[in-house]
Amino acid sequence: MVSPPEIERRYAAVREAMDLHDVDAVVVCGSEYTGFEGAVTYLSGFVIVHRYAYVLLPREGDPSIVFPAEARYVGEHGTSWIEDQVFADRPGEWLGDRLAGKRAGVYGLDYVLTVRDLEALRSRADVVPFDVEFDLARAVKSGEEIESVRDSVRINTQGFHLFAEAYEPGKSAAEVLAPAEAYFVAEGCGRLTMNMVLVGAEFAIARSDTMLGDFCIPSLEIAGSGGHWVEVSRALGTANAEVGRMLEAYEEYFEAAKSALRPGATAHDAHRAVAKGFTDRGYHLGHVTGHSIGMTMIEHPKIGEGIETELKENMVFSMHPHVIAENGHDCLYMQDTWLVTANGGEPLAGLPMKIYA
User: Fold this and answer.
1) CA triplet 182, 186, 190: central angle to 5 degrees?
2) DSSP readout, 39-72?
3) In the sheet that 84-88 helps form, which strands lie side by side, from edge to edge?
C-alpha cells in the first residue's frame, strides 16, 4: 500500500515538471503490454490487466483515471486511490473536453496512446510529448520506493537460484524456468514477470521446445507486489574461450560501476566507464548498457553514449551490457539492479560476478 505522503510526493514531482515545461496537465498512458502499465500504476495504484487506461493529472485540482467503456473490466478498479474514475465511450474525447484549449503533456504519446484517442485529444488541446520529462520526475526514488525495489530484488535473486538449481543441459527452457515462475507468482508478482533465455545472441520465450545446452543465459525481469521492476541474472554452465574473454570484461564493468554510478556523474560518463573493458577488447554492445528502471520496465535516462543526464542519489538502474562476438552467436548478458548512493553504485542482488557452474 502506497502511503498518502508518497502519493503527494509523486504528484508534486510531476507538477514541478509541468511548471518547468509550461504544460497545464499531464496525461499518463498505460497498456497491458508487459512493462508499459507502470506509469499508470505509479500515479494511481491501478494495475492494468486488460486493454489500457489513462491518468489525467492537472496542475491544480484532483486527478482522474479514465477507462474505455467498451471493456468494463480492465483490472481491479478498487485498487486505485483516485476517486474520480471515468468510463468513457471515447476516452480521447473525454480528455479533449477536459483539456480544451490547454497545453497537455502526454506520457506514452509515441508508443501507448491509441490512435483514435490521439486524434480526438489533438483536435481540442495542444498536445506535446512528455515521456522524458515524466521519467526524470520519477527517476529519484523515495525511501518507500527503494524498499519496494529491494523486495523485488530479493524475489528475483531467489528466482535465479531456483532457475540455477533446475538447470541441466538437455532440459527444456520451460522446465527449468517453471520453479522460478511459480515462486514469482507465490511472492505476489502476478502478471509482472517477463522472463526469457538467450539462444545464441537472441532472446527467446522459455518454451517446452527450446532445449538448453551446456551454456545458458537466463534473462529474469520481475516486479514484486510494490510494482517496481528489477532485473537480476547470471549465466550458467561452461563458457568457451570467447565467452571467457567477455567474462573478464564483465568483471571490469562490475568494479567500474561501483564508482561510475555516483551522484554528479553523467549517464554518458557511466556508460564510457562500464563499457571500457568491452571496447578495449574490440567488442560492440548489442543492447543498451543500462537504463533507469522503476514501475515501468525501461525509463529515462538510459546509460548510453551522449546521454548527458546527471545521476542523482537514489536513482535505480538496471545494468546489463549485451556483448556479442563477431560470429554473431557467442554472447554474454548478465543483469543487475543498481542503486546510486552518495558513495557510488550499490549492486542490490549481492551476487558475485561470475558464470555459475
Assistant:
1) 90
2) HHHHHHS----SSEEEEEEESSS--EEEEETTSS
3) 84-88, 64-68, 52-58, 25-31, 103-107, 126-129
Domain match, 181 and 124 both: no
- Cis bond upstream, residue 301 (ω within 30): yes
Q: Do 92 and 120 meet the contact criterion of CB atoms below 8 Å apart?
A: yes
Q: How far is CA 83 from CA 44, 77, 79, 95, in A?
A: 10, 10, 11, 17
Residues 64 and 118 in one domain: yes
Helix (H, G, I), strand (E, B) or coil at 172: strand
Are 120 and 148 members of one domain? Answer: no
pLDDT tens for residues 76-115?
888 899 999 999 999 999 999 999 999 999 999 988 999 9
pLDDT tens per residue, range 149-192? 999 999 999 999 999 999 999 999 999 999 999 999 999 999 89
Using the 8-state DSSP alphabet, how is residue 78 labeled?
G
Q: Read off the pTM.
A: 0.94
CA nearest to 290, candidates 264, 270, 266, 313:
270
Nearest to 125 by CA among 143, 113, 141: 113
CATH number of the domain within which 34 lies: 3.40.350.10
Q: How far is CA 337 from CA 32, 83, 152, 156, in A?
A: 24, 34, 10, 10
**CA R_g for the chain:** 21
Tell me the three-class secondary structure of 104-132, residue by residue: EEEECCCCCCCHHHHHHHHCCCEEEECHH
Query: What does the block give as the cell for 32?
Result: 497491458
Q: Based on the domain organization, do 111 and 200 belong to the same domain?
A: no
Please give the full DSSP string across 297-342, using - where no structure is assigned: SSEEEEE-TT--PBP-TTBEEEE--EEE-TTSS-EEE-BEEEEEET
CA atoms within a 13 Å half-sphere pointing along the CA-CB vector of 137: 24
**Residue 198 shares a structural domain with residue 235:** yes
Domain ends where: 138, 170, 187?
A: 138
| Domain endpoint, select from 138, 155, 171 | 138
Residue 159 near residue 180, CB atoms below 8 Å: yes
Flag whether 355 is in a domain: no
Q: Which residue reads 510494490 in cell numbers?
A: 226
